Amino acid sequence: MSLPSYIQPIGDGVYAIDTGFQREGFDAAWLLVQDGRAAFVDTGTNFAVPRLLGALDALGVAREAVEMVIPTHVHLDHAGGVGLLMQELPAATLWAHPRGARHLIDPRVLYQGALAVYGQEEMDRSYGRLVPVDAARVKTTEEGMSLKLAGRALRVLDTPGHARHHHCLWDEASRGVFTGDTFGLSYREFDVAGKAWVFPTSTPVQFEPGPLRDSVNRIAALQPEKLYLTHFAAVREVPRLQSLFLELLDGMVALAHQVPAGAGRHEALKAGLFDLYLGSLRAHGCALSDAQIHQLLEMDLELNAQGIEVWLDKEAKSVG
Length: 320
Fold this sequence. Notes:
alpha/beta; 10 helices
């Protein structure tokens, strides 16, 4: 079977679908197929929906055979297309974290929050208008429950740290975890000799390094063979990536506490984050130029700095 280039078969009925968000190789939705039944984990934005439906067609899966749509959390690069996709899947149930479900039923607050971060022009270009989901089609997950797809169990892990409304899914059949953003980001441009590089994401507004460390350690304790990342696709060598992730997380926290508050904090954080990531990438063996690396990380530097600032301000208020 010849598949479109945006579909990457991973094995064990797992497919990464490049949503085309921002650039190719940046944002993945996941399709799991078991005995003719299917589930989506993360959807990308509204503009990804034609690719998701195209993947069903390419794999010969009827839209009526999709039983579940499961966003790992409600950030728009993961869940912005949920409502529009659900309109095309008449038999699907939306399974969402209990802290996030209401924002998919009524996405007005979610939209306004993203608008505050990105601005109207970027919202129109990258996300479009959010489509609400009928509350009758929405169910909420809880820690430890199993969602069954043709008998195949996806165990829910409550994984705060990146966002309090974040859950991951342990697929024992493939020995893989659908990690959303909890286990960080790993761009294929940074692979060296087949080895991935990963770094944490502190996107606004619920970055919490302590819970994030616990969530990553908990995922690694399952001894998965693969991590199914939204950014981007499948990675292996989980123990090595766990160590790298935690080292960089510690570095981000140390940097955050070193940078003085004030008008120059944001730019200082961005510069410090770039130095941290650049040093790690050079140790990894990455041969891209500084400028190429900066270009690939530009959006993450901005968002990670924003998220760290929100966390620092919350810390300061709690102490005060």
